[in-house]
Structures are given as structure tokens and as C-alpha cells.
Write a structure and sequence with these properties.
The protein is of the alpha/beta class and 329 residues long. It has a single domain, classed as 4-Layer Sandwich (Purple Acid Phosphatase, chain A, domain 2). It is built from 13 helices and ten strands. It has a five-stranded mixed sheet, covered by helices on one side. Strands 4-5-6-7-8 form a five-stranded mixed sheet, covered by helices on one side. The protein is globular, with a radius of gyration of 19 Å. The two termini are 12 Å apart. The relative contact order is 0.16.
């Protein structure tokens, strides 16, 4: 049972990778394998989905209902991205994916009101299919995330002497995502990235030196890019943790540690290149003190999913206390 909300400590709920499916997305059926023309790769993808990742990507709606029913008393609820199934691979520019995200977010806001804040995940913007090479990041999705879904590209909240900062991992990691972008949109994406980093730096520099920091973002692949900036490295001594989604299950998070430093693979497509590049630089995650917010249902191979519960002392005298709460027990 969750602890009651304290008059001093603040209770924050973290949820990520809900991948809600509207009726329009569910109607697409086996949408991912249809993008793969090579029979052997199509078979491999089916086995990967069935045995490792998610047999039915449209089956997670009920876990959002469970979360909504279980949780109402929190000082803040943060969504860390990926609110739809992105079944057209172009993010919420696709109307079916937009409907999924809208339904998902309306339930979260219905329960938590203004205490809910959502940041942007990679599938919200669009992402090329694993082997089919279909889709990619779409500026129309970015615009829709901000204007119609009211998601935050940069989020800031002060809790006394502890400051919460949410950021857009896809913009930060853009140099790795170039292959996912329409060449005609690439310069616009880089302009958005530059503006985002400038705003992030300005936000951090306004925080008093003695105060504590907590970071939130969707994809931990952004962390090596962040560590290249001196103004980020100067934060490490007062950073009490970074919370990420994207990896879906604790077993994948632990596996990433063992694969740290692996060579970058260039011969197996965009998805494998990005994953191997992120793992090659995995050692740079360490000073960020990374914690995983799993998907509500985890993955087939290890279904230990759920959501995060974070207790924060506004005075910054005690370290944050984090735990993962199951939705399937």
C-alpha cells in the first residue's frame, strides 16, 4: 500500500511507455510485420515480438485503467512519453496514433488534473519501423504534441530546494536520429534542438548553486550527448537522480549495463545502429544516477513492469526514495 502524502515530503508518480491503443490503431492488426518484405526478417520480427518484446502491442489499455483506479493521491504525476502505439511510425501526426495519445492523456488528466505533466517520447514524434524502414520523425507530430496534446518539451517545477527538470530526449539525441528524419525537415529539427538546449541551459543556470536537481527524460540514449556539455557536467555534484523510460523492463536496463562499450553496428539497419551506438556510450550514464520507469506491463520475456513512486524532501536534506510499483500483482 502506498504511503500517505506527507506534509513535508512530496510524492511523485512516474509512468512511461503506456502505448495506449485506440480503436483506429487496433484495427491495423499486425501493422509492423507488414512493413517487412524479406520473409526471413519478417519471421525473426514475429519471434522477437512473441518471445521477447510484446506479443500483442495493443493489449496494454487495461493497465492504464488499473493505474488510474489505484492512484489518486500524489503531489505530481509525470508521464515520460510514448502514449500511443505509433502504428503508422510517424508519431501523432497520424490521426489514429493521435487518438490513442489523446485518450490516454485525457484519463491521466482526468485523475490528476493540473498535477499531471507529460513530456515527449520518441514514438510521439515518429520512429522508423525496426526492419521495414517505414516512417520517421515528423515535424507535424512535434507541433501536435505541444499544441493539441499539451505535452511539454521542457518541463520545470520547483519543490523548495529540489528542482525537477524534464527534457526532450529525441531533440538531444538528434545526431543519432538523422536517418529517421525527412531530409527536408532536418534543418528545422536542428533549429528546435539548438533552441531546446539553450532553454535547458538557461533553466539550469537560474537554479541556486546549493539546491538539488532531478532530471526526467524518455530515452537514456540522450545522456551521452548531455554529458558533452560543461554546463551539464557541472550539475553532477548536485544531481540526485535521472529517471528514464524507453527500455520497458528492468531486465533490459540491467542488460544494457553488461553490453556497455559494445562496438557500433552499421550493417543491420537504422534501429540496430542506434541501439548499438547507445550501448557503446553506456558508461557515460553513470554520473546521471539513472533509474528506470518501466512500461506498465514490462515485456514478454520479463513482465516486471509497473510505474514509479518517488518521495522527495523539498528541503533537499534527504535523498529521494524511489521504488517501482507493480500493476499486475
Amino acid at each position: 500500500m502506498s504511503q500517505p502524502v506527507s506534509s513535508t515530503r512530496r510524492r511523485i508518480l512516474l509512468i512511461s511507455d503506456i502505448h495506449y491503443a485506440s480503436d483506429l490503431e487496433r484495427a491495423r492488426g499486425d501493422y509492423e510485420t507488414r512493413t517487412v518484405s524479406q520473409p526471413l526478417l519478417r519471421y525473426f520480427l514475429k519471434m522477437y515480438r512473441r518471445l521477447i518484446w510484446r506479443r500483442d502491442p495493443f493489449a496494454m489499455n487495461g493497465l492504464l485503467d488499473t493505474f488510474i483506479d489505484a492512484e489518486s493521491s500524489a503531489d505530481l504525476c509525470l508521464g515520460l512519453g510514448d502514449y500511443s502505439c505509433d502504428s503508422a511510425f510517424i508519431g501523432v501526426a497520424d490521426y489514429a496514433a493521435f487518438q490513442s495519445a489523446r485518450l490516454c492523456l485525457s484519463q491521466l488528466r482526468g485523475q490528476h488534473g493540473s498535477r499531471f505533466v507529460g513530456i515527449i517520447g520518441d514514438h510521439d514524434l515518429g520512429k522508423k519501423s525496426m526492419f521495414g524502414g517505414v516512417g520517421g520523425m515528423d515535424l507535424a507530430s512535434y507541433d501536435r504534441c505541444l499544441s493539441e496534446l499539451r505535452l511539454s518539451s521542457l518541463f520545470y517545477r520547483s519543490l523548495g530546494r529540489v528542482h525537477l527538470i524534464g527534457m526532450n530526449s529525441s531533440l538531444i539525441t538528434l545526431p543519432s536520429f538523422e536517418a529517421d528524419c525527412d531530409p527536408d525537415q532536418l534543418s528545422s529539427w536542428y533549429a528546435l534542438r539548438e533552441a531546446h538546449l539553450e532553454d535547458l541551459q538557461a533553466c539550469i543556470q537560474k537554479i541556486p548553486e546549493g539546491d538539488r536537481l532531478l532530471f526526467f527524460l524518455h530515452d537514456p540514449s540522450a545522456l551521452p550527448f548531455l554529458s558533452a556539455f560543461p554546463w551539464i557536467r557541472r550539475c553532477f555534484s548536485r544531481l540526485d537522480g535521472t529517471w528514464v523510460g524507453h527500455l520497458h523492463a528492468p531486465c533490459i536496463f540491467e542488460l544494457s549495463h553488461y553490453l556497455s562499450g559494445m562496438p557500433v553496428i552499421d550493417c543491420m539497419g537504422t534501429a540496430v545502429h542506434k541501439m548499438s551506438q547507445a550501448l557503446h556510450a553506456r558508461h557515460l550514464w553513470k554520473p546521471f544516477k539513472v533509474h528506470l520507469v518501466p512500461a506498465p506491463g514490462g515485456i514478454e520475456r520479463c513482465p516486471q513492469g509497473g510505474y514509479g513512486e518517488l518521495w522527495v524532501d523539498p528541503e533537499g536534506l534527504q535523498a529521494p526514495v524511489y521504488s517501482i510499483k507493480s500493476l499486475t500483482d
